[in-house]
Specification:
Elements (H helix, E strand, L loop, with lengths): L6 E5 L3 H13 L3 E5 L2 H10 L4 E5 L8 H11 L4 E6 L3 H8 L5 E3 L4 H11 L10 E5 L3 H13 L3 E5 L2 H10 L4 E5 L8 H11 L4 E6 L4 H8 L4 E3 L4 H8 L2 H4 L1
Parallel strand pairs: 1-2, 1-3, 3-4, 4-5, 6-7, 6-8, 8-9, 9-10
Length: 246
């Protein structure tokens, strides 16, 4: 099979998690093949090639996810890896082995979809047609990502300031749509200010359902404010998401 095909191999022994991962992969526009063990993963590589491997660290029998990733990295250089685990100690072990992309279980589905989409070339060349959604509420984050994606724009998501900064290190965005109040040391205004210093051409829209926040946004002069629940028509007008409203 041609390596130009965007295929992801999922290695997860829990059937329900395996199914959820497969749905995320397909939603990101990839083809998914899901297996339950390291042995099955090796058989899959014998019959086809993949662009990415999403693997649980704690696999039954034989090699665990980190050992599997090391072996597959030698078999096919250039693979993208995402390791997942419910054990926080596995993150340090994965990074020590050279695998920087790691998600804790239960994982953020919108974040996973965004990670996969970030690996593919953007559908539009212009950075103006790309949006980073910074939102700590999973339901709101997923809704915004789906809405913006339906307009054909490149969109990624972040749950906190650290994830937002890492996203901007990977690529450029034309827009930041950020919740003001985040469950983090940095709030959305702090993140927006920092990114505007690094990316002077960045456009920002702030959202929040917390009373009194609008005045803070206005004083910060980082961008327009939209109260929650977000009026999607007004947001579409601001971003120019004509396709999303048709």
């Amino acid at each position: 099979m041609s390596i130009k095909t965007w295929r992801a191999l999922i290695v997860e022994d829990d059937a329900s998690v395996r199914g959820l991962l497969a749905r995320c992969v397909e939603r990101a526009g990839w083809q998914a093949l899901a297996v339950a063990s390291a042995d099955e993963a090796f058989h899959a590589f014998a019959s086809g090639r993949f662009r990415a491997v999403l693997s649980d660290v704690d696999l039954p029998e034989g090699r665990d996810g980190v050992q599997l990733a090391r072996t597959l990295r030698d078999v096919q250089p250039g693979l993208f890896f995402l390791l997942l685990s419910g054990d926080p100690s596995n993150e340090e072990r994965a990074r020590a082995a050279g695998f920087e992309s790691f998600m804790h279980k239960p994982f953020d589905t919108a974040g996973l979809v965004g990670w996969l989409r970030s690996l593919r070339p953007p559908r539009r060349v212009s950075r103006l047609n790309s949006v980073l959604v910074l939102e700590d509420d999973p339901a709101v984050r997923e809704f915004l990502v789906h809405y913006i994606d339906s307009a054909g724009w490149a969109v990624e998501s972040a749950r906190n300031g650290a994830e937002a900064f890492r996203a901007f290190e990977r690529r450029k965005f034309g827009w930041l749509v950020a919740d003001v109040v985040l469950g983090d040391e940095l709030d959305g205004i702090d993140v927006a200010r920092t990114l505007l210093l690094k990316e002077p051409g960045l456009k920002v829209a702030m959202i929040s359902g917390v009373p009194g926040v609008a005045e803070r946004v206005e004083a910060a002069k980082v961008g327009p404010f939209f109260p929650k629940p977000v009026g999607m028509g007004a947001l579409a007008d601001l971003l120019g998401l004509d396709a999303a409203r048709s």
